[in-house]
């Protein structure tokens, strides 16, 4: 298992296999509150993507990304993402759903076959340990998924802590450059 050189412990994703990246975050709980930020479309839209999700194995997932809603006007969309920063749709299928501890679903990327994302939640006192694992990534998908998850998880941390959101695009651009070197 190889870990990236970290700015702070557990900040960067860890490549656990050639096609897998894992992130861990300790989030303010309780677990039901954190679970709701993943499964409630309105809350999920504040840090990742809205859209319906049938919380059962075999259920449909329709993630609706609108990254322009996740930032401020002073955080411009990088030129290479203009036109792809809002109203992006990603269908998927729920693979496992064990409320409020585990949710796994397919992730359809623009490159190659579907990958798989798993969220695991473990209570740690008043907090919740989140382990996010993204599997079946080719190299191009890994270079996009790693900084993407890192950025989105930062927004989730901000939401749950009740603090101002970090700028989405500036954060993503910095991490995209860092992960490009690390990967």
Task: Give the gist of this structure.
With 183 residues, this protein is of the alpha+beta class.
Ordered list of secondary-structure elements with their pairings:
Blueprint: E1 2-3, E2 14-17, E3 20-28, H1 31-39, H2 41-44, E4 60-66, E5 86-98, E6 102-107, E7 115-124, E8 127-135, H3 139-161, H4 168-182
What does this structure look like?
α3 crosses α4. The protein is an alpha+beta fold and 183 residues long. The protein has one domain: START domain (Alpha-D-Glucose-1,6-Bisphosphate, Chain A, domain 4, 2-Layer Sandwich), CATH 3.30.530.20. The two termini are 13 Å apart. It has four helices and eight strands. It has an eight-stranded antiparallel beta sheet with strand order 1-2-3-8-7-6-5-4, covered by helices on one side.
Quickly list its features.
183 residues; alpha+beta; Alpha-D-Glucose-1,6-Bisphosphate, Chain A, domain 4; eight-stranded antiparallel β-sheet; 4 helices; 33% strand; disordered N terminus
- Order of strands across the main sheet: 1-2-3-8-7-6-5-4
Count of helical stretches: 4
Question: How many structural domains does the protein architecture include?
Answer: 1
Overall geometry comes to: globular
The CATH class is identified as: Alpha Beta
The overall strand count is 8
- Percent of sequence in beta strands: 25-35%
Radius of gyration, taken over Cα atoms and rounded to an integer in Å = 15 Å
């Amino acid at each position: 298992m190889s870990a990236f050189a970290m700015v702070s412990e557990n900040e960067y994703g860890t490549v656990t296999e050639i096609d897998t990246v894992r992130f861990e975050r300790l989030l303010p709980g309780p677990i039901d509150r954190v679970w709701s930020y993943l499964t409630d479309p309105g809350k999920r839209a504040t840090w990742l993507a809205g859209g319906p999700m049938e919380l059962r194995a075999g259920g449909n997932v329709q993630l609706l990304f609108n990254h322009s809603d996740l930032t401020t006007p002073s955080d411009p969309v990088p030129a290479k993402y203009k036109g792809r920063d809002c109203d992006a749709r990603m269908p998927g299928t729920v693979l496992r759903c064990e409320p409020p501890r585990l949710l796994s679903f397919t992730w359809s990327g623009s490159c190659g076959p579907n990958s798989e994302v798993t969220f695991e939640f473990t209570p740690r006192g008043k907090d919740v340990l989140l382990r996010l694992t993204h599997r079946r990534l080719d190299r191009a998908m890994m270079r996009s998924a790693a900084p993407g998850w890192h950025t989105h998880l930062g927004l989730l941390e901000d939401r749950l802590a009740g603090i101002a959101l970090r700028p989405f695009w500036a954060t993503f651009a910095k991490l995209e450059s860092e992960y490009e070197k690390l990967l």
